[in-house]
C-alpha cells in the first residue's frame, strides 16, 4: 500500500459521536494510513538516529468511555513501547496534522532534556524554524509557535519538566487540514522527513551524554 495522503473524511472521524462508532471508523479508515507511514519512515528514522526505530500505532486501548480526539503513529528505540522514551510522532486532530518530537510524562528522560535545553537554548532557538510550535500537553491541539515565545516561556518549560511529575513537552510542525500538502502523500512524507531532521538535535538532547 502506498501512502496517498489524508482526506477530509479522515479528519471528520473525530466528529463521530461515541467511543465505539468513532473507533470503528478510525480503525478501518485512518489506522491503515498511519501503519503505512510508520513502515515507510522507520528505515529513514533508523538511519537518522543511528539506532533501530520501531513503529507504534496508537491503539487507544485504555479508553472506556470518551472517544479519542486524536490519533498517531510513533517511532522509538524500543520494540515493546514508546511512552517511556523520547520519540517521534505523526498524528492528527480534527483540525490538523502534527509532526513532533516528544518526551511525555511517563519518560524519565524529562530532566535530562530540560537540563540540555537550558544549556543549549540559544542554539535551539536559532536552529529550529520559527513556525515550529511547543506544547506541554499532548492531549491539547493548541501550542505556541517558537517565534512567539520569549526566554521566560522557555524557562517555564524547563522548570516544569524538572519539578512537575506529570510534565511533558512536544515540539514540531502543525499542518492545517486544508493545506494541499495533507492530501499529497509523497510531498507530506518528504515534509515529515525534513521536520524530523530539524528535530533530531532535540531527540539527542533527551539522552545523557556518554
From TrEMBL:
Domain of life: Bacteria
Alphabetical list of InterPro entries matching this protein: UPF0637, UPF0637_domain_sf
SUPFAM superfamilies: YktB/PF0168-like (SSF142913)
Protein's UniProt name: UPF0637 protein FKV70_06905
Gene3D superfamilies: Protein of unknown function DUF1054
Source organism of the structure: Paenibacillus ottowii
Family label: Belongs to the UPF0637 family.
